[in-house]
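Following up on my earlier thread - several people asked me to post the actual chain instead of describing it. Fair enough. Here it is, all 153 residues.
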Amino acid sequence: MRWLGITGHTHDAPRTHLERFRRFDFDTVMFPLNFVLWAIPEYRQSAEALLRECAKHDVGVHIIKSVAKDPWAGRPKTHTTWYEPFTDEAVIDRAVAFVLSKPVTTLCSAGDVTVLPKVLAAASASGPLEAAEEQALAATAAQYHSPFVGEWA
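Reply from S.P.:
Thanks for posting it. Predicted structure:
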């Protein structure tokens, strides 16, 4: 038996996956999702549509960039990730809980050995966010930026 998956790493990943998903029979999709990206209306709309299609067709969903905070934008890199990650444990806890509150199969780990233990601890202790908790987290999203350089297109 063979399995086919698709991955994307930009603002248009959910929209692109949705179109490709309509053309090909993928078993899994992998794309970025966090509360900062969810706050972008166009991103959220595409991500919600993709999540609905994945659930409808029993397609596995792997999430990356759950703790992506900002692009480095010329600032000195303090971590091995190509984006600036959240480092505050309380924010990481809520960011991980946010993603795990969605219909996802896998939360992929952070690519930095100093952030990874915090993500693992958050995932171990995580429960679904209540609506009020998700709204409070969403209210903080504007102070951060998409990890992808450039404006939403």
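Residues 27-143 form one domain. That should answer part of your original question.
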